[in-house]
Design goal:
The complex is a heterodimer of chains A (288) and B (345). Chain A is α/β, with parallel strands linked by helices and 288 residues long. Chain A contains ten helices and twelve strands. Helices cover 35% and strands 24% of the residues of chain A. With 345 residues, chain B is mainly α. The chains are: A alpha/beta (288), B mainly alpha (345). The interface between A and B is large, with 38 and 34 residues.
Amino acid sequence: MNAPIHANEMVSRAGTDAGRSNTEVRLSVEQVSYAYSPNPAQAPVFTLEATSFQARPGEIVAVLGPNACGKSTLLKLISGALQPLSGRVLLNGFEVTGLPPKLRAQRIAMVQQESTLLFPCRAWEFVLQGRHPYRSSLRFESAEDITIAKNALFEVNAGHLSDRWMDKISGGEKQRVILARALAQQPLLLLLDEPTLHLDIGAQVDLLETLRRLAAKHRCTIVVVTHEINLAGEYADQIVLMQRGKCLRVGPPAAVYQRELLEQVFQTKLAVEIAVSGRPRVSVLSLT
Amino acid sequence: MRALTVQRLLLRCGILAAILFVVVVIALKLGAVPVSLYGLARDLISVMLGHRSAISSDYGLIVIDIRLPRILLGIVVGASLSIAGTSFQALLRNPLADPYVLGVSGGAAVGAIAATLIAPHLSLAPTFVTLLTPFGAFLGAAGTIAEVYLLGQRHGEIDNGTLLLAGIISGSFFSAIIMFLLTTQSSSLHGMSYWLMGDLSVSPPRSLYAMLIGGFFLAAGAIYTTASDLNLLLSGEKEAMHLGVDVRRVRIVVYICASILTGLAVSVSGSIGYVGLLVPHVMRLIFGSDHRTLLPTAAIGGAIAVVIADTLARVVVAPAELPVGAMTALAGAPLFLYLLRKNLA
């Protein structure tokens, strides 16, 4: 079993790697912190302490941790939706909050937890929205946009859903169409906030298999916030483990999945074993 | 996959424009004084050729001087209210949003009345005095949408039910102010039914027509530049932002331009309700929810709806007349209740 790697060690190691081949680092989260307060006069009710990690093209990073530990806040900071209190997020060397909205949407795609449409549209119309960052306001979609949208639907095995209404398809199918819209953005960085929520286990595995295939094919970096500890262990290249607004560890699953550490973070008795594949498996032990 | 093209958009608008033309011809023909189709065609051609003096009959005068301006006014007012309703629905993510339901028309009416009352006390050139009423209506509309937007929030996010309540209560508050102002300051103002229910029978001053039409095309054009952005806003502001929409800019453009459209419409026709609710929903059922199609088709649809409603208002109890808003409310209020049950239940 590998020794646990502390966040700072990880950064310095990645930094050395980056020094060797600077173009290889796609996403660089550098000492990013955030504080949320409903009223500027009051003390913040939530803080995210300085967090750092790096990711390369084609890598899947899973952000894990209990509820309200700051996973979604971290994702919003990476997406550029929130301005960090300190530190910065670099994508291919450019600070994400400094990018104009359309350019940012060409580089970063986000798949949110919930996506409710006010008025329904067909799946292909929804996927074509992913081409919005590439069009000027009054232009209609080009033949190229339509080809890209079609391919995106096929890539997530949703080609047959093209003409279906978004409010008439199942949760798993909808999740695939939302992913297709993100792909149509042709992003360098794909962010997903709990994409497996409300999906059955088959659909969850299917989604993560698709993500792995997409990461390998398009060389896009994927950051996924999830509660599925075993799926994250199986599919992610890096795990960012968080607790109460603190980033505890960053590293490969086998290094981060330490029994004592996970028990302390999730406040329950767990067993961790390493499978033949070298990937860790976590199981819950009975409390009695 | 049949993506929208310019040809498809023009075809849809063309069909609706043809329907509008037929409706206008019928509206010109119908009324307390019947007019033959032949006489109508002959008089219209004479006017178009510049032979105004060739029209001698009283019938012709009724058609050209009374009915035609009223119908043209109905077209601009219907299109304005319909575009305002469509954009409010997308931006506020509320299928029940409409300038009348949100109290924006009421706010515009108060602004228009206040401007009319203040105008004589200011030493302004006559042209500016005429323009002061629509400007007051715009300020009233913009102020109301800002107020309803702020009051409609719960925990920092827009809440559909709270927003509607804020709008309806504001509307009733403005009705009370209108009644108070009209009762205490009679003189140069239109009647109560004009401001509360809408009325197209009173022709606005000629100098206002240019501003009405120019303002309509400017504001509607500016809203149309945000049509693609409004499509993405149907999924929420956060998702739209991640797809490259400058949400702040869209919000400012749409609120200002929808306030201009509502203000212009109210200053020349009073508060005609439910057009901005009814028409976008019908157009959405026929053409889908893409705002690049929805905005122009809703504009023409709104024109058709108001011209039909006004013709019915002129005809059903002829020679007396109903306020046009009474006709739109007869169709709009049941639809509002149906949508309320469907969306908030």
